[in-house]
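Researcher: We're teaching a course module on how sequence relates to structure. For the next exercise, students receive a sequence and then see the predicted structure as tokens, so they can try to spot secondary structure elements on their own. Here is the exercise chain.
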Amino acid sequence: MKNNVKNIVTSVVFLVFIFGIALVCWFKPASEMSFSERRTLEQFPEFSVGAYVTDAKGNKEFKELKDINKDKPTAITVYNDTVREYIGNFEDYSLDQFPLRDTMRSIKAFFDLNVFNKKDNNNMYQVDGYISEMQPNLNKDSVSNATAIWNKIYNNYLDGKANKVLVSVIPDKNYYMAKQNGYLAYDYNEMFEFVKEQCPNFEYVDISGELSKDSFYKTDTHWSQDKIVGVAKKLAEALGVYDEYSWEYKTNELDLPFYGVYAGKLNLGVESEVIKYLTNDVIDGCKVYDYTNNRYTEMYNEKLANANLDAGKDPYDFFLSGAKNGVMRIDNPNQDNGKTLVIFRDSFGSSFAPLMAEGYSTIYVVDIRVTMAIAINSVVGGFEGKDVLFLASSMVVNDSSEFRQN
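Model: And here is the predicted structure for the students to work with:
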């Protein structure tokens, strides 16, 4: 009798749990944003019968079905790949909108790392409080794509015109953390050598020795601006403008909690960090023009950082208003040498460019993931006598699909 009662109670609890979860899934309003992962979530996909079925003879993408006599196509409607696409979208929606999703992710991460003693959780790992994501494979096709685009810019706009043309790849945290602690990582030096080989007209500057894992945020992919003065010095020396700088800065802290993208991916309740930024009289006196929005903006945009934090986006856009502005211009009224620097960069360049402002009258900061080279040439007004720096993170070089081709 006791066993029967126990079995009934167990079954009832199980059914209540299953159907309760199902009801919550169906009636819970869909969340638009994952604040922990800083990404938009899949929404319920729209379904239209007309969009997913069609006449078998009227659309080549649809399979032709034979009638019972197997001698000619029928005119019946059929489902095709679009149905499978819909089902895939619905599966993504179900995973993204599952109740207590972040809690479940935290529990999984805790058990993987602390109970089952796995070295990583979904390729995420932690060393001395620094979180990183394993990058086991070098994608030479992607590196070739990046260097081909850089070479195309050189051949079309820089050859015989630009003063100095430099290229440098920023190693990510794995360069300093992975193999030293038993995690998978590709050979970064092979990437650097491959870039040098593919860009024979560029001067390659190796900055890996100016960085360490401590140069990066613990919870994010990016470097911290106060830790990259050595990088700026090395590149300024290669550009021949080292003596134009005082190399004296005031270190400031942005009064906002910062959780990098890796905090949400690992999802283990890490502590917030502080965004530090450097100023001096020259940096404070610079003006920044945003060609994307046709307006002047800030070198350090605290208003945007606050807005991003409230919206669950990246406060790192504090630097130069983020990376997704195609072309920006930094004017330095305190420098009369008439020199111009053009930096082709990704998001890492947002915090790097201000440190170069002191040595040039004008700096153009360009993201070729957003803007085509022909438009860049028009905005910059040609590259005659200008210094040019191609600066990109190894993560972007290893996945350069977003680079604009023209």
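Model: If you want an answer key for the exercise: The first strand starts at residue 33 and ends at 34. The CA atoms of residues 54 and 60 lie 10 Å apart.
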